[in-house]
Amino acid sequence: MSGKPRxxxxxxxGRMESIRWxxxxxxxxxxxVFLQTKEQYDKLIKDGLLLFQQVPLVEIDGMKxxxxxxxxSYIAGKYNLYGKDLxxxxxxxxxxxxxxxxxxxxxMFPFSPPDAKEKNLDSIKEKATNRYFPVFxxxxxxxxxxxxVGNKFSWADVQLIEAILAVEEKIPAVLSGFPQLQAFxxxxxxxxxxxxxxxxxxxxKPPPDDHYxxxxxxxxxx
Amino acid sequence: MSKKPKLYYFNGRGKMESVRWxxxxxxxxxxxEFLETRxxxxxLLQGGSLLFQQVPMVEIDGMRxxxxxxxxCYIAAKYNLYGKDLxxxxxxxxxxxxxxxxxxFIMMFPxxxxxxxxxxxxxxxxxxxxxxxxxxxxxxxxxxxxxxVGNSFSWADVHLLEAILMxEEKKSDVLSGFPQLQAFxxxxxxxxxxxxxxxxxxxxxxxxxxxxxxxxxxxxxxxxxxxxx
Lengths: 222, 229
Prior knowledge:
Mean pLDDT of chain B: 97
Number of domains of chain A: 2
Largest sheet of chain B: 4 strands, mixed
CATH architecture of the largest domain in chain A: Up-down Bundle
CATH topology of the largest domain in chain B: Glutathione S-transferase Yfyf (Class Pi), Chain A, domain 2
Number of strands of chain B: 4
Low-confidence stretches of chain A: none
Number of domains of chain B: 2
Shape of chain A: globular
Strand content of chain B: 5-15%
Oligomer: heterodimer
Helix content of chain B: 40-55%
Order of helices and strands of chain A: EHEHEEHHHHHHH
Strand order of the largest sheet of chain B: 2-1-3-4
Radius of gyration of chain A: 18 Å
CATH topology of the largest domain in chain A: Glutathione S-transferase Yfyf (Class Pi), Chain A, domain 2
CATH class of the largest domain in chain B: Mainly Alpha
Helix content of chain A: 40-55%
Structural class of chain B: alpha+beta
Number of strands of chain A: 4
Strand content of chain A: 5-15%
Distance between the termini of chain A: 34 Å
Distance between the termini of chain B: 45 Å
Strand order of the largest sheet of chain A: 2-1-3-4
Mean pLDDT of chain A: 97
Shape of chain B: globular
């Protein structure tokens, strides 16, 4: 049995993508099991592997972890991406939770009805440019450091670069008013582990398409 | 200047209630400023105290913390309610994630139409009794200890008690199939700090009513059109 973490989810981004990003950023190799049928999912539940009958599921260090936030916190803590003390952790948690609210809008987007898609896209653009990006632009400008917290690479940086790229996929010029974030994006993208994750052939998943949406509906159908 | 944490929110439960519970459980006194008008909210916004333009906001240890989860994690760690190591923290985080999802279904309840309220109530009870309560019942049964994690009182216990009481407000006999949870509820309710919080006159807020809903909608100019799960 390999000691690598094992991720169980659909073959797509969803809630597992942030976990793939964080493990990759930490230089940790992992295995993946992809759910493709309702029967596979029902079996996971029947076998008692899913504490709340939900995925993501990450088997790591002898635990069967569920709840995305719990999994990310554990990985961040284990691989020293969670700041050096309680106050730095508080900052990282605030930033990550904010970004997560923005990512939630992107996560739900493929599942919105066709007549709501334009409105939802506008909403993502509005929130990114008026609520979230200005905060991080200001944080980086004020301390002038390369990383968001404590002059050191952390979970917050990984979450932010993931979000920037996800929003840019929808709104290509979204960083045009944010020079600090543009520089941040370049710096993060060039960090060796992240650079590797951004190359073809990595475990990074493509943007969700109709097939992904169909699979989600099929596997989780009540 | 008082060193007590200061909570900025509406005079009602919402997302701040879990913070009140946790501070109370830790025996920490706190102050509250209640948002009642749009002007107050705009003043907070203009003053730059709301990082993402949202409440809850808690002034604590020189920080203006926002994001409920971040605030709770900080309080839990500061007051030793977050386990003794990374693995215990992982368990606490998982358990809190579950109760958080359950309480999320309840949080939107007052904002729903009468018809959707009925639907949502059934949904809450169904999820509580088939997904969440069985998980915690099993955890307690399997280790036979008084507390969820590490044989020591933690954030997970506080959060679970809060969730149990909230679901009971919707269906009073909801714990009838869960003997471990019944015993847990009695035990945790009797912890001195929690007992005090459950008494009249504490800072615990009542079940949200129409006035609360009206205030939130007026101050935030949001949540006019929520639908049941």
